[in-house]
Write a structure and sequence with these properties.
Blueprint (H helix, E strand, L loop, with lengths): L8 E6 L8 H12 L3 E4 L11 H11 L4 E4 L2 E2 L5 H14 L6 E4 L4 H6 L7 H19 L7 E4 L4 E5 L11 E3 L4 H10 L2 E2 L13 H14 L8 E6 L2 E2 L8 E2 L1 H15 L1 E7 L3 H23 L5
Parallel strand pairs: 1-2, 1-13, 2-3, 4-5, 5-8, 8-9, 9-10, 10-13, 11-12
Antiparallel strand pairs: 6-7
Helix pairs in contact: 1-2, 1-9, 3-5, 5-6, 6-7, 8-9
Length: 302
């Protein structure tokens, strides 16, 4: 069993559809009022049927009160890292410290190239993300002396001024599945954010992902426990159990608690655009999962 010991987070994975115009924002409001920790939004800047995700997050931040917001995950090839760093820090300040940074190296390269960015090989995309993360963290480090200088193969910053500093310690969560990217997460990120539906063997593949993340962390002299393991999930509530996350709320809680205790997953982000499902996830699944994990850990329920 691999329990990394993090407090559990629960959130939603929303579609930034342009029609109806305010649907994703209203669902973020529902998530906020239901008591969830995160509202996250897909980012596909090349799809005209979607709102621009960063604009949408900014609008959602103004409509919500306590929930944290992030892209799931932001497309780095179409968002220059120095500019993105300032945008994220600015919105974190404006929202009272409620912005996190979910980010990815890009994957739909025909569409990314059509929007004006250079096509990268898998190895190049890992290197570009590594450089991008360095730039983002350097821009945020407003208390450090001197300007930011990063001379990479994909991004160059030559004397950029630092700041603004975010309102809180923004976490960088990377969407990834392959060994090189997972090792980068262990070395340089705060969390891994894959989707359960993209794992060919389902939850069994989480052990392999953890192996590479842990190796990356250890090679960088980091404690693997410092890296949060998040997971996008989907499911259906039903009167009787049929399959994984397809059954009553108590079954969901047992299965999610198992993923925490067996594979160290400590943030579950439910892909849904249905308000009633969001409310049930928050009211029934999240507290029950927390109780089960706390009991197994021998801890009081917060």
């Amino acid at each position: 069993m691999t329990d990394y010991g993090h407090d559990l987070l629960f959130g939603t994975f929303l579609t930034p559809t342009a029609q109806p115009v305010h649907q994703a924002v209203e669902l973020a409001v529902v998530s906020d009022r239901a008591g969830l920790d995160l509202a996250t939004f897909q980012d596909h800047p090349y799809l005209p049927r979607f709102h621009d995700t960063w604009t949408l997050i900014s609008y959602a931040a103004a409509r919500t009160e306590r929930i944290h917001l992030t892209g799931n995950v932001l497309n780095l090839p179409l968002r220059p890292p120095a500019v993105l760093a300032r945008a994220v820090a600015s919105l974190d300040l404006l929202s009272g410290g409620r912005i996190e940074l979910g980010i990815g190296a890009g994957g739909f390269w025909d569409a990314i190239e059509a929007m004006g960015s250079r096509r990268l090989t898998p190895g190049e995309s890992v290197a570009a993300l590594d450089e991008g993360l360095r730039i983002i963290r350097e821009i945020w480090a407003a208390d450090q002396p001197g300007p930011v200088r990063v001379k990479g193969d994909h991004y160059q910053v030559s004397g950029a001024k630092r700041g603004p500093a975010p309102a809180h310690d923004i976490k960088i969560w990377v969407g990834a599945y392959k060994p090189r990217m997972l090792r980068l997460i262990g070395r340089a990120a705060d969390g891994a954010l894959p989707s359960l539906g993209y794992l060919p063997n389902g939850p069994a593949d989480l052990a392999e992902l953890n192996k590479y993340i842990d190796a990356g962390a250890q090679a960088a002299n980091r404690d693997p426990k410092a890296v949060r393991r998040l997971l996008n999930v989907s499911g259906q509530f039903a009167a009787t159990g049929r399959s994984l996350l397809n059954g009553p709320a108590e079954q969901w809680a047992e299965e999610l608690a198992g993923l925490t205790l067996e594979h160290g997953v400590s943030a579950f982000i439910l892909a849904t655009d249905d308000a009633a499902t969001i409310e049930r996830f928050a009211a029934e699944v999240a507290p029950a999962t927390r109780q089960l994990v706390a009991a197994e850990r021998g801890q009081p329920v917060a």
